[in-house]
Amino acid sequence: MFRTVIVGLTIATLAGGAAFAQGIKRTPLQKVEFPEGYETVTAIAEVPPGGASGRHTHPGAETGYVLEGELELVIDGKPPLKLKAGDSYQIPAGAVHDARATGDKPMKVLGIYIVTKGKPLAEAAK
Questions:
Q1: Is residue 125 part of a domain?
Q2: SS3 state of residue 12
Q3: What is the per-residue pLDDT across 8-47, written as a single tens digit (0 to 9) for each?
Q4: Quick one: pLDDT at residue 82?
Q5: Tell me: the pLDDT tens digits for 66-84?
Q6: Residue 15, domain CATH
Q7: What residues contact residue 3 under an 8 Å CB cut-off, 6+ apart?
Q8: Of 10, 46, 63, 93, which has the most beta carbons under 10 Å away?
């Protein structure tokens, strides 16, 4: 059952993110159907030095913790955030954003996404 969920989540993540992924790698760890009408997805996102996730949105909120490296988080309408290992962040539901790895190491975050059930985890910004 767990393996089926991970395989399905991986396919959904790839399908939802292929259009904007510029070197981002997401490794799904867990998916829980909670709260009602939503799915809570935990994943590791990695971007190589100088790479970017690409401008995208999620059908729900994202919160996360920087595990390794440094990044600049750009959320439309807000000043860029410089983050490093040990920092946490929040991205409002539907906000267009991009994460750019800065420094000479890959950027790795633990992301938690609380998204509308049945929608792709991410979509390219329009």
A1: no
A2: helix
A3: 333 344 334 433 445 789 999 999 999 999 999 999 999 9
A4: 98
A5: 999 999 999 999 999 999 9
A6: 2.60.120.10
A7: none
A8: 46
pLDDT of 126 strictly over 70 = yes
Q: How many domains does the chain have?
A: 1
Residue 22 · residue 52 · CB < 8 Å: yes
Q: What b/e sequence results for 33-62 when a residue is b if at least 16 CB atoms lie within 10 Å of its CB, and e otherwise?
A: eeeeebbebebbbbbeeebbbbebbbbbbb
CA distance 124 to 126: 6
Please state, for a pLDDT cut of 70, what percent of the chain lies above it: 82
Q: What token pair was written down for 54?
A: 């690409």
Q: Residue 69 — left, alpha, or beta (φ > 0 → left; ψ -120 to 50 → alpha)?
A: left
d(CA 98, CA 78): 12
How many Cα neighbours within 13 Å face the side chain of 18?
5
- Range(s) of the domain holding residue 92: 2-120
Q: What is the pLDDT of residue 24?
A: 86
Domain assignment of residue 126, yes or no? no
